[in-house]
Amino acid sequence: MKTGFSVFIAVFVAMAFSWSGFVLGPVRQLGTEGQTNILNSSDIYPNQRPGAATLGLQVYRSYGCAQCHTMQVGQEGVVCDVVLTAAGNKPAAVSNLIATLQLTGLTKEQADAVSGQITAAGGKTETHIVPTGADISRGWGMRHSVAEDFLWDNPVQLGSVRVGPDLSNVGMRYDVNWELMHLYSPVSEVKSSTMPPFHFLFIKERIDGTPSPEALPLQGDLAPPAGYEIVPTEDAKNLVAYLLSLRVNVPLYDAPFTTLAPATEKKK
Amino acid sequence: MNQNEKDYSAIDASCRVPLLPLLGGAALWLVVGLLLAIVASLNFHNPEMFANCPYLTYGRVQPAANDVILYGFAIPAALGVILWIFARLSETELALPIVPIAAANIWHLGVFIGLIGILVGDTTGFQWLEFPRPAAILIFVAFLLIAISAFATFGGRRERALQPAHWFLLAGLFWFPWIYSTANLFLIAWPVRGVAQAVVDWWYVNNLLFVWFGLVGLGVAFYLISKIAARPVQAVNYALFGFWTFILFAPWCGIPQGAPVPAWLPAASTVASVLVVIPLLALVKVFAQTVSGVNVQCKGGPYCYAKFGTVMFIVSTLMVISLGCPHFGRTAGETWYVPALQYLQIFGFLAIVVCGGIYELLSPIMGFELPFAKFVRFQHWFFMIGVAFLVVPLAIGGFEEGLKMKDPNVPFGDIRRATLPYLQVSTAGLLALLLGSLMLAANIFSMIIRWKLGLVKTVLTAVQAPLETQEVKS
């Protein structure tokens, strides 16, 4: 290359190529995405998070929670489980047959064959789709995360390092009281935790007449001096509302699984 | 060589005033950034330390440290070295010298605003792009100003032929405004919807830490090596081929395997990271042929800096390629392996090459010797030790963490406990880097002070000179 202009052309070509691939392409594909239906249901997914949770997302951003927590559940694959739903009129034969068969961890073809055998013996079966993977075994989600899960969030903070556990599904695992206690003193809830305590998300107040119903049930070293109580600030309450709104628990077309009860996504 | 030094003295002197604010501020930000990184890493020794201080909580200090080191030190210091290299290669004095002075002040103001913004919680929430909007605008404007001065110098060059260093550095000057404006417009000004935000951020981070660093770091390293060895870069055709293939393939890396995005995105990254082997081989050949058979006694000087940095570029590129492999990427892609790679790119490669450039240019542009010449060698050692203690434990710890994550029978608490010692060791790496950065700051600031005192002295002697008697006589 002999001139600055030829370097510019080279850069322009290479850059335009990558820019259309990784900026324009995803923006056109994902940026126009809308809500979808939950699998086998007329319910719409995802719904806008409740107001407090939307505010809580900004608290999550402000304190840099995504430095340590990801929101990307991984999945290695799916297996099929065959479940007997009715024994029919020859229960003994069906139960003898079942004793000889493997019913869990099958491929689609194996599951079809097994349920064919059971149906022939007079029983009735259902085939369940079960996602597999370490994250799913740990209870970090019922399926892998997909683009739809983040449709309404701004900013989207997927995180990159798992210093702490994945939070995609944290709303299914804990309740408000646990979350508040854990924010105030992580080691009181999880012994091995390296999460810093967030005392500044709480205020120490003099108990004025009756104790506040929101006061943390602190004991031992953590307990405030007599006559005082520790109550969460608005930020803490919003953050917890956001954490509780994190649920990866509905089957979608591109991430199917079988729910035992009909999908129970809270609508608000 | 002596003849060369003479020829360049006016050119070097023309860089003195424009570069000092840029490089002085950068050296200061490196110290500040490493101090912040040490504060962040204290969290792994005692998580309760900053329980009552929202400004120093890990989630704020860690990105603040990253961004201050990246935007406060790495980029402006690299730009300063680029300006000097352009003046030297063009055999002309630095054009528009007032522009980089203004730009340096705007730039450092931007970094200051950004740092305060992150600490008070005004972060954007996007990795490596945490600075809030006002800071980003200032940094963008300052970059354009410096680039204008660099292009003006390039345009007025007396030596028309382009060298390999020219391609890489010019490409770097075009590259940054494009990626930085795209990221800021698509993520902060008019945020795109949903997970496309994460894709744009990954694209930006890869383009900055891999492609831009590669272009600028290799450009500076090639220039330093060929200058000190007093012979041009060898295998120029391979260099051209490596340059082209690098800018074609490298920008497609960086989407994590297993990200919750359409599958073609990580797949494209996998293909790209395999293809990156091609430019890597070409550039390794250029590097090996250029340094082989050269008899340079570098003794921990800038030549060593450039060589070590280039080797670290090769290592870090291998790590990028490893993350592109689907299986390995899914294992190590959400662990400390990724920060280990990023620290290697910043401290092991770009910072060390740029520091080599700074040491090569300081004494010529100031017109006197380095006040602490031994620090050059010490800093090289401290940086090598620091990089080793920072990157190796994190990479090993991260990989181990990834393997255990794959096994659902290992409780997460055990994984966290097993990773902790690696994180604690990495604090030692940061301390070594801090010592090295203090040496850089000591050299730059004592030179600035000496030069300013010299100016004051000149003014004083001019004022005190017995002019009146002479005037009366004539």
Please outline the helices and strands:
The complex is a heterodimer of chains A (268) and B (474).
Chain A: H1 4-30, E1 36-37, E2 44-45, H2 51-62, E3 77-86, H3 91-99, H4 108-120, E4 124-132, H5 134-137, H6 170-173, H7 176-184, H8 186-189, E5 202-206, E6 228-232, H9 234-244
Antiparallel strand pairs in A: 1-2, 3-4, 5-6
Helix pairs in contact in A: 2-9, 7-9
Chain B: H1 2-42, H2 58-90, H3 98-119, H4 133-155, H5 164-189, H6 196-228, H7 236-249, H8 264-275, H9 277-291, H10 302-324, H11 326-332, H12 337-366, H13 374-405, H14 412-464, H15 467-473
Helix pairs in contact in B: 1-2, 1-3, 1-12, 1-14, 2-3, 2-4, 2-6, 2-12, 3-4, 4-5, 5-6, 6-10, 6-12, 7-9, 8-10, 9-10, 10-12, 12-13, 12-14, 13-14
Structure in words:
The complex is a heterodimer of chains A (268) and B (474). Chain A is of the alpha+beta class. Chain A folds into two domains: 36-75 and 135-244, Cytochrome c-like domain (Cytochrome Bc1 Complex, Chain D, domain 2, Orthogonal Bundle); 77-132, Ribosomal Protein L30, Chain: A (2-Layer Sandwich), CATH 3.30.1390. Chain A has nine helices and six strands. In chain A, strands 1-2 form a two-stranded antiparallel ribbon. In chain A, strands 3-4 form a two-stranded antiparallel sheet. Chain A is flat. Chain B is mostly helical and 474 residues long. Chain B has a domain at 1-161: Four Helix Bundle (Hemerythrin (Met), subunit A) (Up-down Bundle). In chain B, helix 3 (98-119) runs antiparallel to helix 4 (133-155). The interface between A and B is large, with 75 and 84 residues.
